[in-house]
Write a structure and sequence with these properties.
With about 280 residues, the protein is mostly helical. Helix content is about 75%, strand content about 0%. It is built from 14 helices and no strands. The longest helix is centred in the C-terminal third of the chain and has 35 residues. The radius of gyration is 25 Å and the shape is globular. About 35% of the residues are buried.
Length: about 280
């Protein structure tokens, strides 16, 4: 008669609830509580006080400048991202890995370092400083320098979102269109673009969010002058330093709302992109 032996293996514990609690506590300390504090201080004196703080000339100029930079940066990086994604996803060539690494460079380089690079290139004592000064072209501490810094830090997003989509959908539909006599532009507008539109919109959304929220690189090249070269993130810092606390928290609340809307749209576009890839 066989004797049944009890298993000496220790019973496995379910650590899932503990890990969830740790994650929630971590998010609460680093995200939820600080965000709640921003909105509390922005609206603690009422909505009218919030509107008054957000109605100052410096605040309005910061919003205007932020929007202008985004309107310039997003289309330029969208065009660049589409071209780069097309070249990388549809071709094999020497230096492809290097090109991908260069596109990813803004992810690895600190934004402050990027700002210093622009200063060394376009500053008065920089490589192109004397040339720009001769023609009275002002890059630093003006809109062009801020746009250049923002373009650098937002460069990878569109390309990085479109490349995987192009690789997933393959070449079959494009080759079918070419067989039917369509030229390259017709193939792009009627075949490629509809297939990548959700990934493209996702990349544009991230580019816009980063452009509006960028601080490090822009602060180095802008001079951070309230009412002149201060974007909304810079306005938050300068207003807080100057003891304009209601205005600082009002601007921070607007940036937080922008981040929240970005996350919601991001989730929607991620699902649509995944659904589009799986159905093609």
């Amino acid at each position: 008669m066989l004797s049944l032996k009890k298993s000496t293996k220790p019973k496995e514990r379910d650590y899932k609830p503990l890990l969830i609690i740790i994650a929630l506590v971590y998010l609460a300390l680093l995200l939820f509580i600080p965000a709640a504090a921003v909105f509390y201080y922005a609206f603690r004196n009422g909505f009218q006080a919030f509107l008054e703080a957000a109605g100052t000339s410096d605040f309005i100029e910061a919003v205007r400048l932020t929007v202008i930079i985004a309107l310039i940066t997003v289309p330029l990086n969208t065009i660049f991202g589409l071209c780069a994604a097309w070249v990388i996803a549809r071709n094999q060539f020497r230096g492809k890995t290097l090109l991908i690494s260069l596109i990813d460079l803004p992810f690895a380089v600190s934004p402050v370092v990027a700002g210093l690079m622009i200063v060394l290139l376009y500053g008065r004592n920089g490589w192109l400083g004397s040339f720009l000064e001769f023609f009275d072209i002002k890059i630093l501490f003006a809109l062009p320098g801020m746009v250049l810094a923002t373009i650098f830090v937002t460069m990878p997003f569109v390309a990085r979102e479109v490349i995987p989509v192009l690789e997933e959908i393959g070449l079959e539909q494009e080759e079918a269109g070419r067989t039917l006599g369509a030229n390259d532009w017709q193939i792009f507008w009627r075949v490629t673009l509809p297939n990548i539109r959700w990934g493209l919109m996702y990349g544009v959304l991230l580019t816009n969010a980063r452009a509006m929220g960028e601080f490090g690189a822009v602060s180095v090249v802008s001079g951070s002058i309230l009412g002149r070269t201060a974007t909304l993130p810079i306005f938050v810092e300068q207003a807080y330093k100057n003891y304009l606390t209601p205005a600082a928290f009002s601007a921070a609340a607007i940036l937080a709302l922008l981040a929240g809307v970005t996350l919601i749209i991001k989730e929607i576009l991620e699902r649509k992109t995944a659904h589009k890839i799986h159905t093609t």
